[in-house]
Design a protein that fits this description.
The protein has 507 residues and is of the alpha+beta class. Helices cover 17% and strands 34% of the residues. Helix 2 packs parallel to helix 6.
């Protein structure tokens, strides 16, 4: 760049002194202000970088996150950003961060922001456009996060063919036709037939149909007032139906507990029925489950554990009461089921695509099925999880669906990329977020830091003397830090978790 170009660029920027060089050491971050815009200033290996200070997902402060190498992980929900470019590298979220110029002169650090981007807190990567003379077609069956990220990644990597999305949803991530999910796939002819008889041809296919809520099968489950939470319309219906009415929630895992938590200020009464002694017993453990039960009980939620639904009784076609297997009778006007999900793979019956015993679509680490040019991503898949030694798993997390959509798109474009993401999710009860990373199925021991009864803790899930997962409440950014260690392939031992000093969490 010649001097005239330097001067022109300077006129288009706002530059401010933000700190002394000695104020920040390697591996440290701080928030600075440039023309009232908050900027995250980072120092790694003697070099400074400046990017947007808030996560593009839910605007969490990244300065409270985990900085490892050249990326920072959000402390709340695990999204990761490259501190050199601002690009998003791990989900949830879609947008990248704005990236700003940094100069160090005479021991002073200056940050420059272009005037035209001064108010931007996030950045969308450039995308190409479709060319009308290119007939190559990628068909995305499903309209969730995996399909959305797949489509964006294709355009961000200069795919200029046709992208067609088929979905039953009414709220699209971008414009797409509302079509029934009742499709059939002919992989030999590379054709998908719609319920209305229409046929779509493809060159490459993504199956990202997700899962559907598992319905109740007891007598009375067809009464008016029995609800499933699956789509946005369902959430609005539940909200309206429960206002000032008696609600019974069936299921004490993530969906059931979040629904019960939401309804404490809506319904006249909330009862929740679970088959185990404590909520989350199989996933988070009895100690955390007991704590969450106490949290909701303090808001007058009534628990009926080690029990189940025998019958839903009605009057004039609507819910009136719920009979439990124990013989207890609950008054009810609305019943919401949160008892698990079923992968939406029925439409693949008769095709050559491999489905496992739980109805999940089997893929490899490149998100490829056993059929050429057919990929799958999201909740509907069973895939090898790197952090568990390539154990085949089905993970229903928003973050993982987005990551898989990206990997599928890159491999469609012959850019070999493996799914290496570490699961990261969260659940919110009464405004308190429990964060979780890893895959804890089959864990045999739990090690706690802090105190569960004080609702401030970090829990390590141990199997074969190795940490396979962690959960926390009011202990940020520990789970984000652990996710980064797992992503780097580091093995964390039981002995490390038992030590008083947890400085090993900070790489």
């Amino acid at each position: 760049m010649n001097p005239n170009e330097d001067q022109a660029e300077a006129l288009e920027e706002v530059t401010e002194l933000v700190c002394q060089e000695a104020d920040l050491r390697d591996g440290q971050m701080k928030v600075v202000s440039v023309a009232d815009q908050k900027v995250l200033l980072v120092r790694t290996e003697g070099q400074y970088s400046a990017v947007g200070s808030q996560c593009s997902h839910y605007n969490a402060p990244l300065v409270k996150g985990a900085l490892v190498g050249n990326r920072v992980r959000c402390p709340f929900h695990g999204a990761c950003f490259n501190i050199k470019t601002g690009d998003i590298e791990e989900y949830p979220g879609l947008d990248s961060l704005p990236c700003h110029r940094v100069n160090v002169r005479d021991g002073k650090v200056y940050v420059s922001i272009k005037i035209k981007t001064l108010k931007q807190t996030r950045r969308v990567k450039e995308m190409c456009s479709v060319l009308p003379n290119i007939t190559h077609t990628i068909l995305l069956v499903g309209g969730g996060p995996a399909a959305l990220v797949c489509a964006e990644t294709l355009r961000q990597n200069c795919y200029q063919g046709r992208i067609v999305m088929v979905t039953k949803d009414t709220l699209p991530p971008f414009d797409k036709p509302k079509l029934s999910k009742a499709v059939t796939v002919n992989t030999r002819d590379k054709a998908v037939t719609m319920k209305d008889g229409g046929v779509l041809r493809y060159d490459q296919l993504l199956i990202s149909t997700g899962c559907r809520a598992k319905p109740l099968s007891c007598p009375g489950s067809d009464l008016t007032g029995v609800k499933l939470l699956q789509r946005y319309e369902d959430a609005k219906d539940i909200d309206a139906s429960c206002l000032g009415r008696k609600a019974v929630v069936v299921g004490t895992s993530f969906i059931g507990m979040e629904v019960a938590s939401y309804l404490v200020k809506k319904a006249s009464s909330v009862s929740i029925v679970g088959t185990t002694k404590y909520p989350y017993e199989r996933s988070l453990g009895s100690e955390i489950g007991n704590m969450t039960m106490q949290m909701l009980e303090e808001h007058n939620v009534k628990f009926y554990m080690n029990d189940g639904i025998a019958e839903i009784r009605g009057e004039n076609g609507s819910v009136k009461e719920v009979l439990l297997k124990s013989g207890t009778l609950l008054e009810a006007e609305v019943v919401i089921a949160g008892i698990g999900v079923i992968p939406n793979s029925d439409f693949l019956a008769g095709s050559e695509v491999e489905i496992d015993s739980k109805k999940a679509v089997v893929v490899d680490k490149f998100m490829r099925t056993n059929v050429a040019d057919v990929f799958s991503a999201g909740d509907v898949t069973s895939f090898p999880l790197t952090s568990r030694g390539d154990q085949r798993v089905n993970v229903g997390h928003w973050q993982m669906s987005q990551a898989q959509g990206r990997v599928a798109a890159l491999n469609m474009l012959n850019i070999p990329t493996k799914i290496e993401s570490v699961p990261f999710f969260w659940t919110v009860l009464l405004g308190k977020s429990i964060r979780y990373t890893g895959y804890g199925e089959g864990y045999t021991e739990l090690v706690f830091k802090g105190k569960v009864e004080e609702r401030k803790f970090l829990a390590f899930y141990i199997k074969d003397d190795t940490v396979v997962a962690a959960a926390s409440l009011m202990f940020d950014p520990a789970v984000a830090q652990l996710a980064e260690l797992m992503a780097a392939g580091q093995r964390i031992t039981k002995a490390q978790t038992q030590a008083e000093d947890l400085s090993w969490l900070q790489m």
